Amino acid sequence: MGQSVLTTAFARRDGVLYCEDVPAETIARQAGTPTFVYSAAVLRDRYRRLAAALAGVKHRVHYSLKANANRAILSVLRELGSGADVVSGGELHRALRAGFHGHDIIFGGVGKTGQELREALKAGVKLINVESEAELYLLEAIARELGVVAPVGFRINPDVTVENPHAYIATGSRGHKFGIPHDEALDLAKKARALEHVELIGLDMHVGSQLATLEPYRAGLERLRELAERMVGAGAPIRYVDIGGGLPVRYDEGDVEPDLDAFARIISPVVKRMNAELIVEPGRFFAAASGVLLARVLYRKRSGGKDYVIADAGMTELLRPSHYDAYHLIESAKPSGERAVVDVVGPVCESGDFLAQDREMDDMEPGDLLVIHTAGAYGYVMSSNYNARPKAAEVMVDGARFAVVTARESYDDLTRLEQAHPDWRDV
């Protein structure tokens, strides 16, 4: 068996790092830095492998926009047959703008506003995943006002044990803000049955991200199956079972890629017994490995016995190392062969502005090009303008061609929405 697309999409040729068939340095020189670069080949490969693993059960993949909502990424996945999973009115707008139709979209999120629910109903989304009794009644009122019946799924907190790298990415255990508590769901389903403008047709869970084992899927889905049987008995026609995302990706050498066939063997038989359509919502699994962040080394500095590599990208571009204590492989686009133990930091005025700490890696000098790997998910979407830093550019590579798919922000963009002459109102 040959090398996977993942290992060849960002690989070296004669010591120089390429993004598919384009040298990373070529992109950096033409698009500038910092710049996120995405591989269309990786997106296609990961989508096709997941779809093939689940081929034995009726299913639909709905890409989770919160991982990366770039229009070029959405277009690649939509063309492959993916639907969309959104958690805000803004993400709904992005999905529609990228060519998805209402029936391609699932709307989730723990704190949907009345306006967002109204927008979802007007768009004719496939499913609105409700997370509380209060939301259910608000949705009923809005649907009545619009003269429609809202297609509803209940997001259930399955109360399962989750093992993953950070507490902030666990979502399916007791006490988390997400979902309807498992032991309250049946009573709420009975209340939903009495409402005229909502129809309960789905059950949903999301147990967390970067799961260390597949066991939470098994345990959570069994709980959904038992609940679905009781809901069907109470008159709710459960047609969809949504198991969320959470499939892990390989950030560090010690990480492993998920066994998609094993995943399917756990999921498919249970879903078939439920006589429902399976919905999966991968985000990170598609986007993370598809992207790198290119940054230029500005300075080398030694302070307090530590060596620093100061780059033109930092926590404003990639928050994950600071926020989640996350690891990203960092290397030089053209290594000199020398190694050093360094902190890689950005230009932001925060001590928490770092991409790596005490890391043995390629030794680099000012002007060298840094490549930060597995940065396609929760990179650009979590970036900020802190310190009045314009947001980075985004580039898509497809074979031997590349294009800027999001222009770099300008200084004028930073102040575009400010009102030089505000309209003062007396009260």
CATH architecture of the largest domain: Alpha-Beta Barrel
* Fraction in beta strands: 25-35%
CA-to-CA gap between the ends?
73 Å
Radius of gyration over all CA atoms, rounded: 23 Å
SS field, number of helical segments: 13
**Could you give a short account of the major beta sheet?**
9 strands, mixed
Total domains, how many? 2
Mean pLDDT level = 93
- CATH class identity of the largest domain: Alpha Beta
Helix/strand class: alpha/beta
Please tell me what the overall shape is: globular
| Low-pLDDT windows of residues | 168-173
Number of strands: 21
The CATH superfamily of the largest domain is known as: Alanine racemase
Task: Give helix % range.
Answer: 25-40%
Structure, described:
This protein is an alpha/beta fold and 427 residues long. It folds into 2 domains: 5-38 and 288-415, Lyase, Ornithine Decarboxylase, Chain A, domain 1 (Beta Barrel); 108-282, Alanine racemase (TIM Barrel, Alpha-Beta Barrel), CATH 3.20.20. Helix content is 30%, strand content 26%. Helix 6 (114-123) packs across helix 7 and helix 9 (215-233) packs parallel to helix 10. The N and C termini lie far apart (73 Å). The model is unreliable at 168-173 (pLDDT under 50).
